[in-house]
Specification:
Blueprint: E1 14-18, H1 22-28, H2 33-54, E2 58-65, H3 73-96, E3 99-104, H4 112-125, E4 131-139, H5 141-154, H6 161-167, E5 178-181, E6 200-203, H7 213-224, H8 234-237
Parallel strand pairs: 1-2, 1-5, 2-4, 3-4, 5-6
Helix pairs in contact: 1-2, 2-3, 3-4, 5-6
Bound molecules: farnesyl diphosphate.
Residues 19-24, 37, 40-41, 44, 63, 68, 83, 86, 135, 183, 208 line the site of farnesyl diphosphate (FPP).
Length: 246
């Protein structure tokens, strides 16, 4: 009789990440906070490549929240600059790698330069299907719920779970299976409030610039050990053992 083969751990279809800890990463090195955000861009590139290599099909990241406008003016303008520069520099390679870029969030209030970068990147990468990379920028979970409800109201459509889901900014992808937050905090910070209803959560103390393939594998392994019940009982979701093979 051949030895039983170990089942490969399930890989999440959709991973979402709160990329926290850039500022602390920089401060520990006596660098300006923006240096941490720059390093964060490299960490995001590495993470997108690693997700693709592991078979993840959707990666959603929190790059700038509706509340981040309240940071010191030099940090906000630094982040906007970094975003525009990074788009110009990184999009061609992401496109060549088959990544579809989507920008999720309120566009009113963004500069013409940032808007142009976003629109160009989305148009160029729209046909790609290897990995969808949703970048939440000027995004808040409450904003998303309100904009979806307002859209339904303006069209006279009944507010139901299904209609709201279809009007949300992430309607083009299934809900995240796994939400990771780096940086040691255990909170959701207005990220994917609607979509994370049944996501599994992994919190790590690693600061975002230090989040590497090993950390991703640890998070995926933790996900693989979870029993996802979606409100049902353990008996209902447990796959019965297959009958003994003669
Ligand atoms: C949170 O760390 C991080 C942010 C507010 C910005 C994240 C942005 C990037 C990683 C760059 C993304 C760029 C592109 C092009 C998508 P923090 O500043 O709150 O860190 P702290 O908690 O240590 O202060």
């Amino acid at each position: 009789m051949s030895a039983p083969t170990a089942l490969a751990p399930p890989v999440p279809h959709h991973i979402a990440i709160v990329m926290d800890g850039n500022g602390r990463w920089a401060s520990k090195r006596f660098l300006p906070r923006i240096a941490g955000h720059k390093q964060g861009v490299d960490s995001l590139k590495r993470c997108a490549r690693a997700c693709d290599a592991r078979g993840v099909k959707v990666l959603t990241v929190f790059a700038f929240s509706s509340e981040n406008w309240q940071r010191p003016v030099e940090e906000v303008s630094g982040l906007m600059d970094l975003f525009a520069v990074a788009l110009g520099r990184e999009v061609p390679q992401l496109h060549a790698d088959g990544v579809q870029l989507r920008f999720i969030g309120e566009r009113v209030g963004l500069s013409a330069r940032v808007l142009q970068g976003i629109e160009k990147a989305e148009a160029l990468t729209a046909p790609n299907a290897r990995l969808i990379l949703n970048i939440c920028f000027n995004y808040g979970g409450r904003w998303d719920i309100v904009q979806a409800a307002a859209r339904l109201a303006s069209q006279g459509i009944a507010v139901t779970e299904q209609h709201l889901s279809q009007a949300m900014a992430l309607a083009h992808v299934p809900d995240p299976d796994l939400v990771i937050r780096t940086g040691g905090e255990w909170r959701i910070s207005n990220f994917l409030l609607w979509q994370s209803a049944y996501s599994e959560f992994v919190f790590t103390d690693k600061l975002w610039p230090d989040f590497d393939e090993t950390e991703l594998d640890l998070a995926i392994a933790a996900f693989g050990r979870r029993e996802r019940r979606f409100g049902k009982t353990s008996d209902q979701v447990c796959i019965p053992p297959s009958p003994a093979v003669a």
